């Protein structure tokens, strides 16, 4: 297995408050596409990515740390494509900029995604990352408003997490920040 250097996420295992007692949680991946690209997601779906920021909302009701470490540590070439987001992360034009996550025992990803949609984030393609929800016009893969900066996106995510009673934690990757700002 190929692993990126110096990007393991210690903040999850070292978080020192009552939320650590929860093994699962909700997370948002902040992604940036530097150029347009057409990405095949699974067998049947195609996603057209244009330059800009994207949010992917996910959850892991067990082993949140393992899930996030999987996104962080595996190189593009070594990533086994299991979830929709794996296909997007394997694209050479998409960078993982940051992760915002919270510990919870509840499946709140629809609440997070709908709150972001209410703040102007747009559904990229219906059903991406949300196969278990059959709602028209719904997805866990969202395009940030075109004028949104990285800091504004972090602020929006913080507001959403706090509004549903979750304490957000942040992981920012120094090795990709130049590409993400």
Largest sheet: 6 strands, antiparallel
For the largest sheet, list the strands in their spatial order. 6-7-4-1-5-8
Q: What is the chains' assembly state?
A: single chain
- Portion in strands: 25-35%
Shape annotation? globular
Q: Runs with pLDDT <50, length 5+? A: 1-21
Q: Termini distance? A: 29 Å
Alpha-beta classification: alpha+beta
String of helices and strands: HEEEEHHEHEEHEH
| Integer tally of domains | 1
Q: What is the arithmetic mean of pLDDT?
A: 77
Helix content: 25-40%
Which structural traits does this protein have?
single chain; alpha+beta
Question: What does this molecule look like?
Answer:
The structure is a single chain. By secondary structure, the chain is of the alpha+beta class. It has one domain (20-180). Helix content is 27%, strand content 26%. The protein has six helices and eight strands. It has helices spanning 10-14, 64-73, 84-89, 109-118, 150-163, 177-180; strands at 25-33, 37-41, 45-49, 52-60, 94-103, 122-123, 141-143, 169-172. The strands form two sheets. A six-stranded antiparallel sheet has the order 6-7-4-1-5-8. It has a two-stranded antiparallel ribbon with strand order 2-3. The protein is globular, with a radius of gyration of 15 Å. The protein starts with 9 loop residues before the first helix and ends with a helix. 34% of the residues are buried. The model is unreliable at 1-21 (pLDDT under 50).
